[in-house]
Design brief:
The protein is mostly helical and about 240 residues long. The chain contains ten helices and two strands. The protein has a two-stranded antiparallel ribbon. The longest helix has 18 residues.
Amino acid sequence: MNEMSIFRKILVFCFLTLPLAVYAADRAPVKWQEIWQAMGVNPVIAESVVWPEYMMYSYWQDWLETSAVSSTYVTSGSGFDFSIGVFQMKPSFVEKLEHAWMQSGLAQVPELQFDISDNRSAREARLSRMQCADWQAVYLALFLRLLYISYGSFDSTGAKIQEGIDTLPVSEQVRLAAAAYNSGCLWPSAGLGDLESLRSKASWTGFPRSLLPSPSARKYCYASLAREHYLEVSE
């Protein structure tokens, strides 16, 4: 299955069905795994990176919060930020991701060529994509593609310049990719990403595992939760 056929399936799903309130609790849907596979991403790594967010997702809570603030984002722009969707992506994160993707030279498929203008039309289109669970799976694939290039072993000429994220044990790849996803990262040129910058974020323990978090609630390490899921499903 190629990228074009994947996008036909996404468009049909997003426009002809309603989002579900409850998703599978043990693994990501097969459809998302097909998307990740078609886009050149290891499905188990992708699933594990977002698993902590996926497990905490509540459709109705997300709908209420998004309905209250989405119009402000469309009119005001990225200065107004909030989390949305099954993987709790923020518009600011997706904006940066789209910019990096369009500048990477990888945007060959028309459906993956984004309008990155700072205007209402671009923000409306972006928000519409973010509200579709399948599109969040696509954005995750783009994120991982860029991450493995920036923090990989090779520069843009194909010369090996470091022992990149691709050389690490897969469980450690998951841990660092999850840290980058949860805390944010830069996408420098191929092979120039500093793995130590990702390792420094991988021990952060600020992730709540409650739909109604409170200051006294226990916080968890997002990267460790992602790694634990990978180890469970890869046994």
